[in-house]
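Protein Entry — a single chain follows
Fields — amino acid sequence, structure tokens
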Amino acid sequence: MKYTDGNQAKVGDQVLIGKKYHGVVVADIDAGEYSIEYPREQWSYLISGVMIDTDFGGLVHYDQESLVGEVIELVKRG
């Protein structure tokens, strides 16, 4: 999955969501990459997108289509 700014999403990335919230990518389902805390066995059923641990609502699943109404930008590569 690519962020709104065109960067490829990767586990560990710090992101800015909607210009005001922060989060960390904990699973990249598209690439099959998962953090230790969020294993493949728990999240691969989602099929595509990323899981982001956000400061506004905990874990949130985003896929490429959800970026039509949401801005997610890379702040720092993880």
